[in-house]
Amino acid sequence: MSGSGSGSGSGTALSAVQSRPYEAMFLVFNKEARKSHDYLEEHLKALLEKVGAKISRFVKWEQRSLAYEIKGQRDGIFYLCYFEADPKSIAQLQRETELSELVLRMLLLALDRIPTEDEERKRATAVEEALREGEEQRGEGSFDGGGGGDRRRGRGGPRGDSGGGSMDGAGDGANG
Amino acid sequence: MPKKKSRIALARARQRRYKKFVDRGPCRFTKKEAQLKKNDALPGAPLEISYKDLNTLERLCSQQGKLFSRKRSGNSAKFQRQLKTAVKQARYLGLLPFVG
Asked: Which pTM does this prediction carry?
C-alpha cells in the first residue's frame, strides 16, 4: 500500500528505507532441475538478492505436474520463499523474474509478518482438520458420490448408447 | 404432452433439491477457528485458507474445477472469500485447473 507514484510530489520525506515481509512462490522449469537443484536455488536467490531482499526462509515446496501447460511445460518445481524487502524494489523483482528464462510463474504476496515453520504447519493442519470435520458433520462423503455420479451419468456414454440402440429412448433423445 | 409446471411448483422443486445442503450448522472453518481460539492454539494469526492447502481447495471445487457455492459448502462469507482468492492464486500457479 505504498504510494510510490505520488512520493515525489508531496513534501513528505521518505528517507528511511522501509521494508516489509513478503511471501513468494516460484514455479520453475523442471528440465533445468535435471542438471542440478542447487543451480535453480542459486538462480532464485540471486534474483532476490539483486533487489536487496533479505531472505528469511527458502524451501523447495513441491515438485508436481501442472494442471495445465505453462510455456510448454507439463510439470514444474515450486520454491517457497519468505523475505523482507523494500516495497519500491518489488517492481524490479517482478521485472527480473519476468525476464528470467527459468521462472515460469511467480506469486508474490505481501504479509503482515513472516510465519514460523511451526505456525505454518499448525495452520495447514487446522484447515485440513476443519475440512475433514465439516465433511463428517455434513455427511458430504455420500453427497460427493451422488453429485459426481449424476454428472458422470450426464457426460457418459450409456445414455447416448441406449438412445441410439432402441426406439424407447425417445425421452432421452429429447433431453439430449 | 406433459402439463407445464407452474412457476411456484418449479420453485418448490428447486427448494427440495437444495434442502439437503442448507441448515447443516455453522461454517466448518469458523467453527475450527473458534475452537482454536478457545484452546488458545491459534497459529499466531487468525485462521486463513492459503493456496497451499491444495487438498482443501480440491475438495471444495467441483470436478470441472468450479468452486462450490456457499449454499452447498456451508462456508461463511469470510472463508468463502478466502477460498475464492486461494483458488484463483492456485490456478495462476498451475496447481488447479481453470477448466476441469
From this structure: 0.72
